[in-house]
Design a protein that fits this description.
Blueprint lengths: L1 H14 L9 E5 L2 E4 L3 E23 L5 E7 L8 E6 L3 E26 L6 E6 L8 E4 L6 E2 L1 E2 L2 E5 L5 H4 L11 H13 L11 H15 L1
Parallel strand pairs: 1-10, 2-11
Antiparallel strand pairs: 1-3, 3-6, 3-7, 3-8, 4-6, 5-6, 7-11, 8-9
Helix pairs in contact: 3-4
């Protein structure tokens, strides 16, 4: 019964993917971060905006039992001089302003230093607060009328070598999960087929694969 329910859920998700993409998008690069054990990596926050802005602000949330954001740099950002950030347990606030009004693609907002603090490996979303598709980054234009953008999340992945079965550099979609790869993951999950390192997919593993496929499909 659970298998049928999840498959029906996937079909429902497929039917929802025909929506129109937003003109303004804020996103993380890289979208997926792989680590084994403790250590740090950098993740950049970028903005694609058709609206001219001079001020922005947002909050980024994470699982504080798994990872921590230890530093935020604004060097090379669209707001390199007037900016700031604060740490509040399992989320940070960050933002900036500048006299230059900007629009365009691949506009750097900030560079995060993210630390994995669980030596046994863990998985944590690195995401903007709120619900996907809702207004989660405020980007103010020169006329002070707020504009908002749609965001995509990044996923911090530690101790999940099995995921390289579908996200390795030599796979069909490279770091992205294609529909064909999702179908393969569903088959492995349904049949309890061993993948890399003899790993058997759990339901939570399949949910992660689905979320990564959704990010690529959108």
């Amino acid at each position: 019964m659970k298998n049928i329910s999840i498959i029906i859920g996937i079909l429902v998700i497929l039917s929802m993917l025909s929506g129109v993409a937003a003109d303004n998008i804020v996103y993380f690069d890289p979208e997926i971060v792989y680590m084994d054990g403790v250590g740090t990596e950098t993740v950049q926050v970028f903005l694609d905006s058709t609206d001219t802005i001079d001020t922005w602000g947002t909050e980024i949330v994470f699982d504080s039992n798994c990872i921590n954001i230890t530093n935020v740099e604004f060097s090379g950002s669209i707001t390199p001089t007037y900016n700031g950030w604060g740490h509040f347990g399992n989320y940070i606030y960050l933002g900036g302003t500048d006299l230059n009004h900007m629009s365009g693609e691949d506009l750097l907002l900030a560079t995060l230093t993210v630390e994995c603090i669980d030596p046994l490996g863990c998985t944590s979303s690195l995401n903007f607060t709120g619900e996907t598709g809702n207004e989660r980054l405020i980007a103010g234009p020169p006329d002070n009328s707020p504009n908002y953008v749609t965001v995509y999340e990044a996923t911090w992945i530690s101790g999940t070598d099995w995921l390289l079965q579908w996200t390795g550099s030599d796979t069909d979609g490279a770091k992205n999960i294609t529909t064909k790869e999702l179908q393969g993951a569903i088959h492995c999950w349904l049949e309890n087929i061993e993948i890399r390192g003899g790993h058997i997919l759990k339901t939570s593993d399949l949910q992660l694969v689905i979320s990564l496929w959704l990010g690529f499909s959108n």
